């Protein structure tokens, strides 16, 4: 009968470990996604500012 509690403890350890690993993976993926979006927006803004500075302020047509 001592074998059942040992298997139960091992099973719970595996389940909790996998649950924690899954949660950590999801949180990390969301953080990386947000960081990538933030860098992309900053790059787009920098390119837009660069385009505006290269174009003449008052073009004559």
UniProtKB/TrEMBL annotation:
Chief location category: membrane
GO cellular component: membrane
UniProt region (Disordered), positions on chain: 38-61
Basic and acidic residues bias locations: 38-51
InterPro entries: COX14
Keywords in alphabetical order: Membrane, Transmembrane, Transmembrane helix
Membrane topology (UniProt): Single-pass membrane protein
Protein's cellular compartments: Membrane
Coiled-coil boundaries: none
The keyword Membrane belongs to this UniProt entry's keyword annotation: yes
Keyword Transmembrane helix: yes
Superkingdom, natural source: Eukaryota
Transmembrane segments: 14-33
Name of the protein in question: Uncharacterized protein
Source species of the chain: Lentinula aciculospora
């Amino acid at each position: 009968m001592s074998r059942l509690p040992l298997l139960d403890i091992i099973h719970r350890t595996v389940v909790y470990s996998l649950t924690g690993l899954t949660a950590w993976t999801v949180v990390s993926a969301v953080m990386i996604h947000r960081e990538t979006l933030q860098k992309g927006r900053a790059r787009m803004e920098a390119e837009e500012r660069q385009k505006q500075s290269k174009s003449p302020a008052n073009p004559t047509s």
